Prior knowledge:
Largest sheet: 4 strands, mixed
Order of helices and strands: HHEHEHEHE
Distance between the termini: 57 Å
Strand order of the largest sheet: 1-4-2-3
Amino acid sequence: xxxxGPMKKLAFLIIFILGCASFSYAGQDGFAANSDDILTMIxxxxxxxxxxxxxxxxxxxxSKKTYPVVDSLGTALTSGPGSSMQVKLVGHTDxxxxxxxxRSLSLKRAEAVKNYLAVHFGINPDRIEIDGMGEDxxxxxxxxxxxxxxxxxxxxxxxTKKEEAPK
Length: 167
């Protein structure tokens, strides 16, 4: 007796694959790996991508080794459908440190990315909103170094409004 049979297993597999589709374009740990990944993940309004942008400890200074990630975002926002997109950059921290400090630091980090994009890619700052969530929205456990590293991120959300259909 095959419980469910092959059709049921196939249906489950299809649903599972479709459920994972939003992360199928992501690199390691679900983070966008390049400008194509970013564009694919944020093309639809409300679409989002996680970026692994590192900063100096207790600082909003972008680490030089992660410039390629920020450059990928700049490329995504200056090419194809990204060139007219409005986005929100949301900074996140791990849970180390005081909650209010982390909220302020996460906002400053999102602002640093916005400023970098304006200076290095000529992106109009009016296209970019910023917010800082601090430690309030972890995507991994803060009980390990790996989890804390995943929680220190910048999220890019497409906030472009859908144009109303002609009447």
